């Protein structure tokens, strides 16, 4: 059984007057915040506010970096030149780092967002580009077990942390079901809670076809932009604590 587990969520996913996530409510639940850095979502005022409130609550701040794709919310693959991609990612980390420091905190890790996250599961050149950014920034990476990202990071001497997803469908191969396909999201909060319990108790994620996938994860991601996200996150946190799991940032 898992003794300790991090809960992370994607926050600051808004722009100007638009907001997709209830950042304040989720910061009362999660132990790590993946803060959008302006390329798929997140404007300076939002980034600053979320960093300040995360630090106030003792929530770890991570840089959620993305392709330059505001219009597509970072969910469209971009065939980016690796050197340019590395520069874009470092730019995002640098911006977030200043907001975190101004709040009395630090950026503690790097996590790709959306299409970039899915690309670096298999795309070697882009995985290397993300690793180059993380290494230059002196940050560990958070990613999918078995991905090229984590493999290339380990080869480069960059610390890695594996995560699982509480509300996303998995293929039998252990990758995420594309969002446009059936089964991309779990159907309801009960299913998400059961996913978290099974991961904590047995170290297993159940794929859309029923395959049990052994999974070692330091962190569990709960998306903040899905209906009922806050209530679901609260239920997951309560269920894990009731099962004897300590909720804490990954080491």
TrEMBL record:
Enzyme class (EC, first level): hydrolase
Q: Does the keyword ATP-binding apply?
A: yes
Question: What EC number(s) does its UniProt record assign?
Answer: 3.5.2.9
Give this protein's Gene Ontology molecular function annotations. Answer: 5-oxoprolinase (ATP-hydrolyzing) activity; ATP binding
Cross-referenced SUPFAM superfamilies: Glycoside hydrolase/deacetylase
Recorded catalytic reaction(s): these are: 5-oxo-L-proline + ATP + 2 H2O = L-glutamate + ADP + phosphate + H(+)
- GO biological process, alphabetically ordered: carbohydrate metabolic process
Keywords carried by this UniProt record: ATP-binding, Hydrolase, Nucleotide-binding
Record InterPro entries? Glyco_hydro/deAcase_b/a-brl, LamB/YcsF/PxpA-like
Superkingdom in the source lineage: Bacteria
User: How would you summarize the oligomeric state and partners of this protein?
Assistant: Forms a complex composed of PxpA, PxpB and PxpC.
Summarize the protein's role: Catalyzes the cleavage of 5-oxoproline to form L-glutamate coupled to the hydrolysis of ATP to ADP and inorganic phosphate.
* Family under the similarity heading: Belongs to the LamB/PxpA family.
Specify the protein name: 5-oxoprolinase subunit A
What taxonomic classification does the UniProt entry list for its organism? Bacteria, Bacillati, Actinomycetota, Actinomycetes, Pseudonocardiales
């Amino acid at each position: 059984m898992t003794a300790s587990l991090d809960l992370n969520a994607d926050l600051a996913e808004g722009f100007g007057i638009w907001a997709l996530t209830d950042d304040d409510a989720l910061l009362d639940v999660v132990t790590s915040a993946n803060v959008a850095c302006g390329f798929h979502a997140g404007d300076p005022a939002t980034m600053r506010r979320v960093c300040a409130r995360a630090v106030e609550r003792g929530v770890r701040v991570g840089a959620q970096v993305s392709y330059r794709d505001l219009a597509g919310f970072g969910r469209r693959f971009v065939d980016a030149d690796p050197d340019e991609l590395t520069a874009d990612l470092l730019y995002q980390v640098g911006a977030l780092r200043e907001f975190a420091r101004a709040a009395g905190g630090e950026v503690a890790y790097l996590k790709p967002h959306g299409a970039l996250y899915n690309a670096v599961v298999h795309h070697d050149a882009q995985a290397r580009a993300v690793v180059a950014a993380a290494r230059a920034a002196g940050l560990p990476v958070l990613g999918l077990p078995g991905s090229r990202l984590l493999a290339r990071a380990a080869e480069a001497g960059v610390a890695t942390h594996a995560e699982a997803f509480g509300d996303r469908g998995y293929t039998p191969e252990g990758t995420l079901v594309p969002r446009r396909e059936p089964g991309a999201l779990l159907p309801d909060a009960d299913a998400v809670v059961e996913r978290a319990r099974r991961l904590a108790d047995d170290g297993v994620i159940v794929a859309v076809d029923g395959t049990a996938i052994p999974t070692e994860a330091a962190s569990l991601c709960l998306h903040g932009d899905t209906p009922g996200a806050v209530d679901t996150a609260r239920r997951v946190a309560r269920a894990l604590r009731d099962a004897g799991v300590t909720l804490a940032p990954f080491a």
